[in-house]
Write a structure and sequence with these properties.
Distance between the termini: 11 Å
Radius of gyration: 18 Å
Low-confidence stretches: none
Strand content: under 5%
Shape: elongated
Mean pLDDT: 96
Order of helices and strands: HHHHHHHHHHH
Number of strands: 0
CATH architecture of the largest domain: Orthogonal Bundle
CATH superfamily of the largest domain: Hypothetical protein, domain 2
Structural class: mainly alpha
CATH class of the largest domain: Mainly Alpha
Length: 206
């Protein structure tokens, strides 16, 4: 007899809680602003590479005020290994200027206002709202998208649909922690390639 989604969710949560009881945010940061920049840099780039680049970037400028004074070229030179450097460097400078001019140098605690900033999409805004401000959100990256489909929790047609499906299945109070737990699990046990369902602690039970 196949498990329904609620039973699957309970099983998944129990396993993830044992494996990752206190998951840390993979991206190194010091405050909402440095998290925002790090998440923006992580688009089409690994967290490991972002973490290798941000020390130099934040040594140059770790506040909107300081970053707004930097040239796009200075920023681009440092973040080049991340990929999409021309676009990202312009976005980082512009959003820093906007934060200074419109928000007194503070990152706004609003999904809508964050998504108005250059280079900030729904996922980036969700990460900042959940991990910087503790507002319930369920940012879906490629890892979560993949696992949700494998576990039969979502059709996997789009990350938008996956986010909607997962929000309906899991309690709101655990979203912020759960999305990190799934990411860590996906990287360690439920990889995109070289994945054996019989060896995966979750897949083998579903």
């Amino acid at each position: 007899m196949r498990m329904d989604k609620k039973k699957k969710a309970k099983l998944i949560c129990d396993i993830l809680e044992k494996l990752y009881p206190r998951p840390d945010i993979p991206l190194k940061h010091r405050d909402p602003y440095t998290l925002l920049v790090a998440v923006l840099l992580s688009a089409q780039c690994t967290d490991v590479r972002v973490n290798s680049i941000t020390p130099a970037l934040f040594s140059l400028a770790d506040t909107p005020q300081k970053m707004a004074e930097c040239s796009v070229e200075e920023i681009e030179k440092i973040i080049k290994p991340c990929g999409l450097a021309p676009t990202k460097s312009k976005a980082i400078k512009k959003l820093s200027q906007i934060l200074v001019e419109k928000y007194g140098g503070e990152v706004p605690k609003s999904f809508e206002l964050l998504k108005e900033l250059p280079g900030v999409g729904h996922k980036t805004a969700s990460v900042v709202m959940s991990q910087a401000f503790g507002v319930p959100a369920f940012p879906v990256d490629t890892h979560i998208h993949r696992c949700a489909k494998r576990w039969g929790l979502s059709s996997g047609k789009s990350v938008v649909q996956t986010e909607k499906d997962l929000k309906e299945i899991f309690p709101k109070k655990i979203w912020n922690k759960l999305h990190l737990q799934i990411i860590f699990f996906a990287r360690e046990y439920c990889r995109a390639v070289v994945h054996d369902p019989a060896e995966c602690p979750i897949c083998k039970l579903l």
